[in-house]
Amino acid sequence: MKAKKQLIKERFPNLTNKELKSRNFSITKYELSNFFSRKQRTIIRIYGAILILSFILIIFGLITQKSILEALFAVVFFYLLALLFKLVRLIDNDRLAFWNEYLLSTPNNPLKIVMLDDDSKAKVNAIRKQFTRYFFVFGSLCFFLLFLV
């Protein structure tokens, strides 16, 4: 991410921090409204709410030490698996094709989109794979803890 931030600073040196935040918000909003369908946007919001709720329940279970803790370990396992599949989806070629099409159709680039080079993309994908493995191992450990508790 540092490389991308540095690349943005090099290509658009006059942007202030406030403009960078506004740029990021605009890109996210544009992507949500044009790349994802209405159904996908709803699923993303529900998914986020479920993850926040499960995190709150996990904290509650750890504090109160009730029997709900066993069920919460299973919840953690399944939500981490869901996160695994979400991370895998993020490296989809459709998103790259979407932004390449955007750059071709709007050459003045008002959103100030910066595409990474192939080496940087490979590094990002390697990091995503590493985090996916970590989440899977952590989720598996939580699942096996169900049998020990």
Automatic annotation (TrEMBL):
Keywords assigned: Membrane, Transmembrane, Transmembrane helix
Domain of life: Bacteria
TM segment ranges: 43-63, 69-88, 131-148
Name of the protein: Uncharacterized protein
